[in-house]
């Protein structure tokens, strides 16, 4: 075999190996991207549920305050429920928007940036807001339920139970203190990364690991 023929044969073999590697890479990426998409689906479903619940709570709050304009505590409780429902719906819409921006055909680095943006939102904004609100939102809920009971009886419960609000505010302060104490304790124990992973959610952390695996395969 002449030198030119040998060189041509090697070039043909190199092209076939390159094509085979490219095919293997495409198959590997395609399988992992399908898993990534399926892995993020529960988060999308939950955010859709949160969006619907947020709208329901918002409407409930509007019904409460609009029908109790002359009852200060019921009015304030209804507004609080409306605000909470609005935040829940807006936050769910924000996450759904971030998920919709992920293009699974784009480079791995771009998908990692999208997921990092999603993680930052959940860890730095959503988690602190809902941790604080979740500690106190039960107060307007309880006040509204009590108001409904007194509406049926035709009484104003504030005339009969003046210390109720103070007791609930004290419980809310304790709840907030417990949340702050737990946060400080987790950081003191060096579990901040673990806590952030919990805030980000299992779907996001699994997706990040999958992308890291794809990136390593791509580098190799």
Count of helical segments? Answer: 8
Number of strands: 0
Radius of gyration: 27 Å
Give the domain tally.
1
Average pLDDT confidence is 82
Basic shape: elongated
Query: Which structural class best describes the helix and strand composition?
Result: mainly alpha
User: Helicity level, as a percent range?
Assistant: over 70%
* SSE topology string: HHHHHHHH
Outline the structure in words.
- With 220 residues, the protein is mostly helical.
- It has one domain.
- Helices cover 89% and strands 0% of the residues.
- The chain has helices at 3-67, 72-100, 108-136, 138-153, 157-160, 164-188, 192-200, 202-219.
- The relative contact order is 0.10.
What are the key terms here?
220 residues; mainly alpha; 8 helices
